[in-house]
Amino acid sequence: MSAWQRKVMTEVFVGGHDGEVKEEDVRAVFARAGEITEVRMIMDARTRKNRGYCFVRYRESAQAKKAISEFCKVKICGILCQVEALDVSDKIFLGDIDKKWKKEDVMKLLQKTGVENIDTVTLMADCNNPSYNSGYAFIDLGRIEMH
């Protein structure tokens, strides 16, 4: 198994928390699933606050699976967050999306900028206000033939 495959199997995506959440807050919740080797908080360069999502890496893949099953919806500092496995498909993370946008708006933007082979757009709902999105989406691309 390659280092990249091990990383995918031992890491989880956590999204939906607010910019005030610190690494220690994430560790306090997710350590219940196992030994955490790394928490990567994705930071906004301008505000120096986190962007509302992070990645938690465990020592063992079984610990990551446990986190996904036990914490699929979990509160961090009182905010309901989503936990997902990393996907090994041709998936792109798209952040900083207008929270009022719908899936169709994201599709139009991608097509307008020349992105092709889009299979699906998964726009993550805001757990605290379902009429809004969480400001990010996952874009699944179709297979691209390399010549």
From TrEMBL:
InterPro entries: Nucleotide-bd_a/b_plait_sf, RBD_domain_sf, RRM_dom. Gene3D superfamilies: 3.30.70.330. This is RRM domain-containing protein. SMART domains: RRM. It comes from the Eukaryota. Pfam families: RRM_1 (PF00076). The keyword tRNA-binding does not apply. GO terms for molecular function: RNA binding. Keywords: RNA-binding.
